[in-house]
UniProtKB/TrEMBL annotation:
Presence of the UniProt keyword Repeat in the record: yes
Top EC class, one word: transferase
Protein species of origin: Pengzhenrongella frigida
Protein name in UniProt: 5-methyltetrahydropteroyltriglutamate--homocysteine methyltransferase
Catalytic activity: 5-methyltetrahydropteroyltri-L-glutamate + L-homocysteine = tetrahydropteroyltri-L-glutamate + L-methionine
Domain Cobalamin-independent methionine synthase MetE N-terminal: 16-335
Active site: H722 (proton donor)
InterPro entries: Cbl-indep_Met_Synth_N, Cobalamin-indep_Met_synthase, Met_Synth_C/arc, UROD/MetE-like_sf
Gene Ontology molecular-function annotations: 5-methyltetrahydropteroyltriglutamate-homocysteine S-methyltransferase activity; zinc ion binding
Residues annotated as domain Cobalamin-independent methionine synthase MetE C-terminal/archaeal: 454-776
């Protein structure tokens, strides 16, 4: 503990942020890395683009008021994902990728790194899953008893040196060792009962080595992100996690003395540390960053904090509403009562989850724009609050007044409250949430739809080709008339229908060519939402989304999808599945108003969807899929908060889908595989058919479903569409074989893991052909 007594760091008096967007305001990194993947540029070109982007970020952050000399500027760059980066730094490349590591340098090049992320040839990619309760995805590390940890890549040191050479003393950001291991899965072949966290003692020396190297390069602070400690959903009991936390930071901070190591800031974004806070405060780390937007403030002083910097995360890194600066200053005053050596202003999470700059949205209504803060505005808020904290509220009186005025304006602006929407919701009876007996529905649907056993279908989208995107961009710019644009989309639907008929699929889709994104599209067609032009946020790797802003009461001014689905149905004798995005997912992938409970907002969206489904049914569409891939994502990280969430989320889905006749088949689709824990909620949705991701985890998901005796239709994905790999017919046959062994064949559907929008036809056509051929093989094995 000797090191902490020599700490005299004042922390970050000008404020700090936990991280900043990495893809660039015009998605520069996405463009650079995708052209490398396409073989059009070299790894050096990508490195140069990345270095330019890092320089731009640092310059911008200094301009916005962060201090370039006290390590308040984080360095959190990544080519794809920070969890994969951590694995690469500590040498934990799964054995199956060992051939990608250069035997002389012991390093992975950008091509090898990309292969782990995306797969290539026979190399299946690492598993990908959601990062806490966000729409960001990380690559799951694979750790076994024999994984050799070594300091394999000094990229964090090189990036620190690069910044220093440009006059900016950055704070390198790394995924902390405890979170890294808690998020990892046991490598294939690990013995029963083995858990990656068992390897903590072997991993810590590598982190120590890295910290030592960073200190030698001149780093004064390093940030280690430990969000696993705010979540009960991670695969460890909280006592185990806390024990690991104490072990880790006793070793890294207590046993390793400064200046051999930099000061350590342990960050706990996304929620509340709970009992982990006093435990962490008892170690010799130099700073703790708390999420004071999602988390609570302890009631009084915390023992151990008196030697530490407390970074008070009062500016929301997860949403885009302008901060209530007065309330944030109150919170900072309260944070001062915890007894820390000093309090610095911070963001609650990295700013990775918000777009760059609200000033880059010229088309946004100016009234709405005044309510918003994107990453750059949030850095400004941090600087203002730091000023107010240091010099008193009078010093920032103008900014406080502007913040209160924006809030007051938000409360009273037209459209924020629409009485007719509120009255319709208040008048709903219990009946609006129930569909009636499944067995009767199943019989009515079977009689109407006449499908073969193991019906084949897709999840909705077909490839978003460059031509489709160009047309949409031209239409948005006014260069292509609406008439021409819609004619092109109808021609695309015609092609997609013909292809599905040729391949022999049983339930057809229209392919969603007219949608820029499954949430943004609906937001653009509903009242109460605003869409952005440049508000890109990284979702995974090079893939980005522009989350819409849900600012007012939601209503549907006119049918949205009906004409597209009806047109599709006119082209084929096969059943056509209508395609909507569910209320929970629309909320999860938007920036949602924070002035009323999420459940109320969800029900407003649900009513709009209920009307859309009624119109689809009236237009003769017999199957409607309502996607809820984000149902798991919004699940609160603390177990105590989960039942209330599951209650409103499931109810809103039922409100959307319960208005139909019993012979109308409702499908839903959920991505991601850890559904064991929400199996009851999936059951509660009461959908007739549910498709889920299963291929990347080799159908492991079927076990909890079979154990729970799940009673309705289920379509475990047999093709991992997140990878450009084409699965062989044999591979699909094997996955389907596994499925029929655990799920009753009459409830089993055959489909890919997810939509095909990110894929190319050269992958889609053979993969779907393999899927249909494999289905025929497996059908032949079924008892008559
Ligand atoms: N919101 C959301 N979250 C989600 C998913 C999802 O589908 N939506 N799926 C899961 C996985 N995440 C994903 C996230 C993004 C994408 C994706 O494909 N994103 C696209 C952008 C989609 C989009 O907004 N497309 C627009 C804009 C396309 C574009 O880049 N246009 C060019 C111009 C066109 C040209 O000349 O090529 C430009 O703006 O520069 C459109 O089609 O209209 C990308 O990164 O490339 C896929 C999956 C989980 N979370
Ligand atoms: C992320 S879930 C995607 C569902 C949507 N229907 C699609 O096929 O793209
Ligand atoms: Zn999906």
């Amino acid at each position: 503990m000797s090191s902490s007594t020599v700490t005299s760091t004042p922390g970050f008096p000008g404020g700090t942020i936990l991280g900043y967007p990495r893809v660039g305001p015009r998605r520069e990194l996405k463009k650079a890395i995708e052209s490398f993947w396409a073989g059009k540029t070299t790894a050096d070109d990508v490195e140069q683009a990345a270095a330019a982007l890092r320089t731009r970020t640092r310059t911008r952050l200094v301009e916005l008021g962060l201090d370039p000399t006290d390590a308040s500027i984080p360095s959190n760059f990544s080519f794809y994902d920070q969890v994969l980066d951590a694995a690469v730094v500590v040498g934990a490349v799964p054995a199956r990728f060992a051939h990608l590591v250069d035997p002389t340098t012991g390093r992975l090049d950008l091509a090898g790194y990309s292969t782990i992320a995306r797969g290539a040839g026979d190399d299946l990619p690492a598993e990908m899953t959601k990062w806490f309760d966000t729409n960001y995805h990380y690559l799951v590390p694979e750790i076994g008893p024999d994984t050799v940890f070594r300091f394999a890549d000094d990229r964090p040191v090189r990036e620190f040196v690069e910044a220093l050479a440009q006059g900016v003393l950055t704070r390198p950001v790394l995924v902390g060792p405890v979170t890294f291991l808690l998020l990892a899965k046991a490598a294939d072949g690990a013995p029963e009962g083995f858990s990656p966290i068992d390897r903590l003692a072997d991993l810590l020396p590598v982190y120590a080595e890295l910290l030592t190297a960073l200190a030698a390069a001149g780093a004064t602070w390093v940030q280690l992100d430990e969000p696993a400690l705010v979540s009960d959903s991670i695969d460890a009991t909280s006592e185990q996690a806390i024990t690991a936390l104490v072990q880790a930071y006793t070793a890294l901070a207590g046993d390793l003395a400064k200046p051999t190591r930099p000061a350590l800031l342990v960050a706990a974004p996304y929620g509340d540390l709970g009992a982990a806070l006093p435990a962490l405060a008892g170690t010799a780390v130099d700073g703790i960053a708390l999420d004071l937007v999602r988390g609570c403030l302890p009631a009084g002083p915390v023992a151990g904090l008196e030697t530490k910097v407390l970074v008070a995360g009062v500016v929301d890194g997860h949403n885009i509403w302008r901060a209530d600066l007065g309330a944030a200053l109150d919170r900072l005053d309260a944070a001062r009562t915890l007894g820390a050596a000093s309090v610095s202003v911070g963001t609650s999470t990295s700013l990775l989850h918000v777009p760059h700059d609200v000033e880059d949205e010229p088309a946004l209504d100016p009234t709405l724009r005044a309510w918003l803060a994107f990453a750059d505005q949030k850095v400004g808020e941090v600087a203002t609050l730091a000023h107010g904290l240091a010099d008193g509220r009078d010093a920032v009186a103008d900014q406080l007044a502007a913040s209160s005025a924006a809030l007051a304006n938000r409360r009273t602006a037209p459209g924020v409250v629409r009485p007719e929407v509120r009255e319709r919701l208040a008048g709903l009876s219990d009946e609006a949430f129930h569909r009636g007996d499944y067995a009767a529905r199943k019989a009515a649907q079977a009689a109407k739809l006449q499908l073969p056993p193991l019906p084949t279908t897709t999840i909705g989208s077909f490839p978003q080709t460059p031509e489709i995107r160009k047309s949409r961009a031209a239409h948005a710019k006014g260069e292509l008339s609406t008439e021409q644009y819609e004619a092109e989309m109808r021609a695309e639907i015609q092609r997609v229908v013909t292809l599905q008929e040729e391949i022999g699929l049983d339930v057809l889709v229209h392919g969603e060519p007219e949608r820029n994104d499954m949430v943004q599209y609906f937001a653009e067609n509903l009242d109460g939402f605003a869409a952005t032009q440049n508000g890109w946020v990284q979702s995974y790797g090079s893939r980005c989304v522009r989350p819409p802003i849900l600012w007012g009461d939601v209503a549907r001014p006119a049918p949205i999808t009906v004409a597209w689905s009806a047109y599709t149905a006119s082209l084929t004798a096969k059943p056509v599945k209508g395609m909507l995005t569910g209320p929970v997912t629309i909320l999860a992938w938007s920036f949602v108003r924070n002035d009323q409970p999420l459940g109320d907002t969800a029900n407003q969206v649900a009513l709009a969807l209920r009307d859309e489904i009624a119109d689809l049914e009236a237009a003769g569409i017999g199957i409607v899929q309502v996607d809820e891939p984000a149902l798991r994502e919004l699940l609160p990280l603390r177990a105590a908060d989960q039942p209330a969430y599951l209650d409103w989320s499931v109810s809103s889905f039922r409100l959307a889908t319960s208005g139909v006749r019993k012979d109308t088949q409702i499908h839903t689709h959920l991505c991601y595989s850890e559904f064991g824990e929400i199996i009851d909620a999936i059951d509660g949705l009461d959908a007739d058919v549910t498709s889920i991701e299963a291929a990347r985890s080799k159908m492991e998901i079927l076990e909890p479903i079979a154990e729970a005796g799940y009673p309705r239709g289920i379509g475990p994905g047999v093709w991992d569409i997140h990878s450009p790999r084409v699965p062989s017919e044999a591979e699909v046959t094997e996955l389907l074989g596994a499925a029929v062994r655990s799920i009753a064949a009459h409830e089993l559907w055959v489909n890919p893991d997810c939509g095909l929008k990110t894929r190319r036809y050269q992958e889609v056509t053979p993969s779907l052909e393999h899927m249909v051929a494999a289905t025929k093989t497996v059908r032949a094995t079924l008892p008559a």
